[in-house]
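Dear Dr. H.,

I hope your travels went smoothly. While you were away I took the liberty of generating a structure for the chain from your last submission, since the lab meeting agenda had it listed for discussion. I wanted you to have the full record in hand beforehand rather than looking at slides cold. The sequence, exactly as received, is reproduced here:
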Amino acid sequence: MDLRTLTYLVVGASFALYIGIALWTRAATTKDFYIAGGGIHPVLNGMATAADWMSAASFISMAGMIAFMGYGGSVFLMGWTGGFVILAMLVAPYLRKYGKFTVPEFIGDRYYSTAARAVAVVCLIICSVTYVIGQMKGVGVAFSRFLEVEYDTGLYVGMVIVFFYAVLGGMKSITYTQIAQYCVLILAYTIPVIFISLQLTGNVIPQLGLGSTLVNSDVYLLDRLDQVVTELGFKEYTTDVRLSGLNMFAFTLSLMIGTAGLPHVIIRFFTVPSVKDARSSAGWALVFIAILYTTAPAVAGMARLNLISTMEPEPGEYLAIDERPQWFQNWEKTGLLAFEDKNNDGHIVYTADPVANELTTVDQDIMVLANPEIARLPNWVIALVAAGGLAAALSTAAGLLLAIASAISHDMLKGMLFPAISERQELLASRLAMACAIAGAGYLGLNPPGFAAGTVALAFGLAASSIFPALMMGIFSLRVTREGAIAGMISGIGITLFYVFQHKGIMFIPGTAFLGDRPANWFFGIEPNAFGAVGALVNFVVAFAVSRVTAAPPLAVQQLVETIRTPDHAPVAHDLELVIHDEP
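The corresponding predicted structure, in token form, is as follows:
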């Protein structure tokens, strides 16, 4: 069976499964829609959380970034996995004990302020919208290559699938769909690299294969990779840092605390029955995530070695244009891989020298998807990878869209504007908000803004600088006031957005003297995607400084914080008479 037909069958079967689950688990109440009824088993929720967490960035982009950045790409592994540990230890159990539906709801109650809740909603929407753009790009990229349709067409199909299982069933359908999507994506990620590890090293376990010797050789795979990249003029794969040590630290920290502040992941822990189950669920999620994250370095290293071997079959010999393999021609059609025969010698020269290099475009996002084709694996493996990439993008997109819809319907409409609406009206508003969010995400996928397209690291930086500090101070400090929290969130996300925008040439107008024309990465060499750590520091400093000169929180709020932190199994007493007001 040809690849295109097989891909249609595999992807079509997975989509049919997702829609079937959506119809089976349709939400009937707001509790079903927001937190899946609150009765999901910890193991199942751990699997769903892993799928929600492992987005197109994890499945498609991460290994590609590591493949081209080498050691510098380890910031994504350390940041994203370390952040999940922070989330599991310091955030999820406490918010689950609080027992409400959304992160802005907790912030509004803890800081006794509808204004604080409104600011949290705005921050949540900014972070989630930035993140969802990358997921929509992942859907378009996977469709455009494997189903041989236009990028726009693939995006529309993805929107329809998400609409069915997200709008119909909310969190209940999303949870069970994500369980299925996890199974699809993890098989799609691990099976190809097992094949490739066997080809290159003879080791069936990719994690061990990365540190093994090559088949019929006493040379280690990583030593060989270092050798071939340096011969082509690139920096050594295993030691090259990302810009600087300080930037590496800031990037890792930004990803870590951004992970612990992402609302679409946090709300997953509201779906289990108890605080104990929330902790257990986080542990299982780490296990399921670790399967992919410990495999990613092997995928990256082996994909880079295979790519170079294709470009340079023997030392000093380059790929003849007329003999370029079918996988190369397939990816040329997408525009994500391109070359130019600059010296008209009929060969494609791949080198770090920008003048001599003739492989003009190699999009990092193609490495995982193209890897099975480069290694000449069976068609069914390639088709499975396509289904896995789509599952990763769709699962996270659904979680993000639900977080956006919940913020609009539950926090803005029900919580602030129209508190008297019935549960039925709120459920209808939730579905309408979800439909609008899907339409908005689709538009941004088709017309991505220049400052956010192609990166989800920015979304983590925004969450790190705004939501994470507010949660940490809300849980572990009795003294932080509503004025401090509001000022901190606005300052943190404001300075982060300022740094990102001016770096991309959006903030500064040519010919003006507004702070001067700053060079790239002007703040101690820290790049915009790593600036969330600085924004978080600003948030903490501003919040504590303002809190010191404003009246302490009411006694009832302090009791609420103490109750959340009490290490017992008793739920928070929500009959506390919290007065939420904004007057000075």
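Two observations you may find useful: Residues 505-517 have pLDDT under 50 and may be disordered. The chain is about 65% helix and 0% strand.

With kind regards,
E. W.
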